[in-house]
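Continuing the series of single-chain predictions for the mutant panel. This is the parent chain; the variants come on the following pages.
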Amino acid sequence: MKIAIGIEYHGAYFQGWQSQPNHRGVQDALEAAIAEVAGEAVRLHAAGRTDTGVHALMQVAHFETTAIRPQQAWVRGTNAHLPPWVRVLWAYGVSDDFHARFSARARSYQYVLYNHAVAPASQHGRVGWYHRPLAADAMQQAIQGLIGEHDFSAFRASECQASSPIRTMHDATVSQQGRYIIFSFRANAFLQHQIRNMVGALIYVGQGKLDVPAFSALLQQKDRTLSPPTFMPDGLYFTGVTYDEHWQLPVCEACWD
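Parent structure:
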């Protein structure tokens, strides 16, 4: 059987999604817990890999097993063997041709930034922080230039192993809710550190260090060394994956409204 699962996790407790030699990856925790339910080792394949400190409200992964279990057993049984900072939200049997990564049509992320002179205590590790006032309107104007198909080399990590820097950004917005500024992105796929690098550059726009034409020029220059530094991971959330309807997955994007 092939089982797809929806997953939520607090990234501060892990060294990213991918399995690690010290077993500190989200993948390690989930594979060990699912194996307890299945009675055999399993291998998870995720829709996208998140870095250390990055959270997920709706990650999607799949695994194959010979074990026959009720769908709720894959949820409740697995969660019984997990630490409280990671949870399986749903499980659903899928056909053999489904793949959590390759069947995905788009991925959605949001970056939640706390914009205040004093860093937050209760939200420590769960939101990004910048201490000076930012102009959300200017950042919203600049972010519109990211929509469409582009070479995103300007916002790509130097160690990124993707074969191509070309990605299609379907949506990109900036909104403000009190002291929180929320950056929302939906694309067919993302490069390593791409969102954190884009947010770092947008914050320069919000400060007035870059104007909108200068931000657009960064994208066109395709040179990571000319762009602002990578921003902290704390406020980054993987919020959803888009699949064709025929898969009938119970996937709903968990967004900040």
